[in-house]
Every structure is written in C-alpha cells, then in structure tokens.
Design a protein that fits this description.
CATH topology of the largest domain: PH-domain like
Number of domains: 2
Distance between the termini: 79 Å
Helix content: 25-40%
Largest sheet: 8 strands, antiparallel
Strand content: 15-25%
Number of helices: 6
CATH class of the largest domain: Mainly Beta
Shape: elongated
Number of strands: 8
Order of helices and strands: HHHHHEEEEEEEEH
C-alpha cells in the first residue's frame, strides 16, 4: 500500500506538508519505530523513482517534487542514501541528454590521471572487475547504439538477462572505472588504461556490467563488472554520442577553415 501511495503522490497536487501529515498519522496508527519509518520511506521513494526510470528519465519538475517531499518529511541524505544516489544519477543522465554542463559530482583529492583542459569527470565506479573476453566472444548482451544522432535513454528493464563475466573470460584486474566526457580510464594497481570515447565502436549492456569495444588501430574488447549497469550503460552511451558529435563538428569546422581561400 505504501509504495503505491508514494508513486501516486509524485504526479498529484497534494501539498508536501499534507503528505507529511498523512504519513505521520500512518506511523502513529501503525506504531512504527523511527527506523521502520525510514525504511518505509526508502521503499516508497525508491518505488516512486523506479516506476519512472522503467520508462524514461525523471524530469526536472519531478526531481524538485521528490526533494520537496523529502524535505517535508525532515529526511536527510544519510536517512535515504539509496534514494539520493538514484536521484543524483538520474540528474546526471538528464544533464547529458540536455547537453548541460553537470556540476553534480565533485572529485576530492588528487587524481592519478591528468585530464585534458576540456575534460571533466562524470562518475567514478569503484570496486570494478575487468575481464578480457576470448577471441571467439559470442557477442551476448544488449547492444547500445553509440552512433545515434539523438540521445536515447535505455530503461532499466532493457538491460537483458545475460551476465557480463563468463568462466571463459580472463580476469584483467580490479580497480576503479573513471568516466569522463572524453575517455574511459580503468585504474588498477597504480596503472591506468585509457579508452577514448570517439574510438568506441560498440557498447553492450548486461545485468552486471558493460562490454566496451574499441576499434582501430586494433580492436580490443573489455568487460567491466560493476555495481550499477543501468547507470553505466546510459552514462557511457550518452558521453560517447556527445564525444563523437563534438569530434565531427570540430573536424568539419577545421576542414571548412582550411578550404577558405586566402586573400592577399
């Protein structure tokens, strides 16, 4: 009953303070303890967000509505950290779709890699396992287009049922996967491997990770098993599309400039 109530509230005109009062009455009548109330809110907000993400990204108005409801319930980030995480990730993806410069993530401490002047970190996945598939890789997983002109959202239900790592895959280290607007960096044991997004020729999504294929000069495929494949698939796909588009525009501009006749 409670998850359904939360879901209906998102699109309703019910004031946030009235929503808070209704929940307060429910807590008192059910004699819920504070930790049980927080658990109920985590489930409720989680269901509210997931119901939208199964079809599309949250709108900015829906994000504001959720934050308003959370504030009315006097919940802080520590109380519903899972909900905060989903909101943050959905907001990052929406910023990418809308081609906005997202400042939602801040990197603290020194970076072990030197970023380019126009490069910024979108997300860092921790505790990632990297695998190298065999030459006879079966091509499983759901193929995500990285060459589409328009940004296309990949709903949570479209990840497929395949698992990324298989017994025939060779483990290629564990560490952190840094996603920027220009590159993927896999950091492991003090070293890093870079995959330029403009050289990414294929991206496959799985239930537990993503598979990235890099093209010329030699084709290389790496599988990254990580904690949020839905977010990783959308993040890498959107960043890859923008990198390809920006690269094409840059090349076209340079070509046009070189073709202009010089005036003496």
């Amino acid at each position: 009953m409670v998850p359904t109530f939360f879901t209906k509230i998102l699109a309703s005109q019910l004031p946030a303070d009235r929503f808070s009062q209704l929940l307060s009455d429910l807590v008192q009548s059910a004699h819920l303890k504070p930790n049980e109330f927080k658990s109920m809110c985590v489930v409720g907000f989680g269901t509210m967000i997931d119901n939208v993400l199964r079809q599309r990204l949250l709108s900015s108005a829906e994000e504001r509505r959720i934050l308003e409801l959370k504030a009315a319930l006097a919940l802080n980030a520590a109380d519903i950290i899972e909900v905060e995480d989903k909101l943050l990730k959905a907001g990052i993806l929406r910023d990418l779709v809308e081609r906005k410069n997202s400042d939602r993530v801040a990197v603290s401490g020194p970076m072990p890699i030197k970023l380019l002047p126009n490069e910024n970190v979108l997300w860092i996945f921790n505790r990632v396992r990297c695998y190298r598939p065999p030459p006879e890789d079966d091509g499983s997983g759901v193929l995500v287009s990285v060459a589409a002109v328009d940004a296309v959202y990949m709903p949570t239900a479209s990840l497929g049922t395949d698992f990324a790592s298989k017994r025939s895959d060779l483990e290629d280290g564990s560490g952190d996967l840094v996603v920027t607007n220009l590159n993927l960096y896999f950091l492991s044991e003090g070293k890093f491997r870079r995959i330029p997004l403009v050289k990414m020729t294929a991206l496959h999504s799985y239930r537990d990770g993503i598979k990235v294929t890099r093209g010329v000069p030699e084709q290389k495929t790496r599988i990254f098993v990580l904690d949020d494949p839905w977010f990783a698939s959308n993040l890498v796909a959107l960043a890859g599309r923008h990198a390809l588009t920006d690269s094409a525009i840059s090349l076209a501009t340079r070509f046009t400039a070189e073709e202009k006749p010089s005036h003496t």
